[in-house]
Amino acid sequence: MNVVGSAGTQFPWAGFGSVCIGARGMEVSDGLLWVGTSNPFVGCQIWVTNGTHWKRANLPGFGSSSNIATRGITVYKGAVYAEAQNPSEGAGVWKYMGPTDFESMGTPVNQAKWVQVNAPGFGEPETNSGIGELIPFDPPTDGAAIEYLYAGTWNGTGPQLIQGILTMDFSALVGCQVWRTNGTEDPGDPSRLIWEKVMTGGFGDRQNGVMLSSAVFKGNLYMGTQNFADQAELWRTSDGLNWAPVTTTGFMDIDELDVSGLDNGYMWRMITYKGALFVGTLNPILGCQVWSSSTGEPGTFEQVNVNGMNGERTIPIISIEGIPITGIDQYGVRSFAVFNDWLYLGTASWGDWVDRIIGTDYSEYVGCEVWRTDGTTYIPPELDVAKTVFDSEAGYWVDSLNVSIGDDVRFLCAMQNACSASDMTGTVVLDILSPSLAYANGATLQFPNGTTIDREPDYVLVIPIETYGMCTALEWDLGDLTLEPGERVTVEYNANVVEVGEDINFLFAGGKCSETGEYGYGWDYAILLSGPSGKSSDSTGRTKAVYDLGESVYVTGGGFVPNSPVDIYITEDRKWYGDMAISPPLFATKTVDADANGAIRAVKVWIEIHPSGNTT
After folding, report:
1. Please, which of 200, 354, 522, 532 could form a disulfide with 559 given CB 3.0 to 4.6 Å?
2. DSSP at 583
3. Domain range enclosing 456
4. Where residue 417 sits, what CATH number does that domain have?
5. Would you call the peptide bond into 585 cis, given omega within 30 degrees of 0 as the criterion?
6. Do residue 505 and residue 396 come from a single domain?
7. pLDDT tens for residues 306-351?
8. How confident is the model at residue 157 (pLDDT cuts 50, 70, 90)?
9. Does residue 331 lie in a domain region?
């Protein structure tokens, strides 16, 4: 981090001259910019500038090197409050009690004028090692004009979270919390304030281990989480006590689709701009995303950026049989700011610190970027994409089809240039078959003029995809084809049903606008239902495969006879299909009735957990 002021005020080396490795939070108060830093060597530091010079406003670590980082920093009732992450003793909230004129600040006496106003970790130091967000909010529906200070906590240490991301094992998390205070002093200790807990357990999902972002919008307090297990979540409250979900799937709300693995893992930053709420995500697979809504209501958020800001993928990950697999450049929206009526956005790109942790050298290919918008609508090149499967009994193409093991099916992949005035070239088609299907050749390509030719895929690869298993990837490179506006090209091919399941089969395609050189993308999916199927879940119906001792096991499924009894067995984890006998051990059994649609939804089956902690 380089700190630059007017001539003669630039520090001689990085990190404010004291090896601060990150500027984690910023706030403006009394005409000064306050910056909270991360410093695991001597403790977090608060730096203040009047625009020309910088001064440190606290003792390193507020007097303890265990306070390693300040993320949350805000102004509440005229005073500056700052968070201190402390993995060993629990997070602290500190209030500045010193002078706020720049001339008086920075002396050792005034640097010591911070008071911790909460019990470490709010009395739960093992759960609350840090605070991601500090934000004032006056609930308009609680019947009283009282402004509270809200604190969204950070569960788990930095190394635990990094290890969890690398191994997809988040068992160390128990769920973030939200605490609030109205500023009333604790009679037993006047230096501290009275706090109450208004949310615990990560909104019912322990994988919501970190509160990362917050905003007040249209009378509601919004808070966003980190969740790599089943996507980051956004929740809101109007009374400050009762919370409702806005999205629990990282905005990728598709009823039939389990989107875990598409990795909107952070709701990283939030801001209000021109009457709308903007949320920026971290997504290392698809690239950072920005979602916006003018109402904040569930189901109203729309993505308003191109994945990764421009879709660039220049990180060389691997090559599979000659196919280069590249990684996204800009994976996170790290900061928002409104300046001169523009909304500015700062990205997170692959960093040297990530390279050092996992032993790669990707940072040489990328760097962070700054983007801005004035709120006007940008229409990117569009490639309309549709995937269907042929229903031989009905005689037409459908989005979903009931099949049996051994059936042959035929898929249709259609790509249409939806640009109004530009040709599209360089079309690439990537089709993903679920583990229940095997590619069976017979591929044909139909050009816009109706001519049809045999055209097998350029590549057929069997690849593992997290949460789905061993899938077959088919790629057609149609780079020599030009699609005029409104023209479409189609690919058909055969597949064979080899396993039972409720399977989603994806299609991705992209093409380049010949006028601007920009790429347009699209995706779709077709569903095959090959008999009844079920999955272990949590109480909301979300897929869940690992449980803690004492947690209840729920089952969700479909494809059963409507309004009929369904026998549920919990046994060892393996493939079960056809007439296979269900053999011991049986950990639990239960009979329930399917609904009118032939579905069962989040039925509690088992409370006592097998010592292995695993279920199917």
Report:
1. 532
2. -
3. 383-530
4. 2.60.40.1530
5. yes
6. yes
7. 889 988 888 887 776 666 778 888 999 999 999 999 999 999 998 7
8. low
9. yes
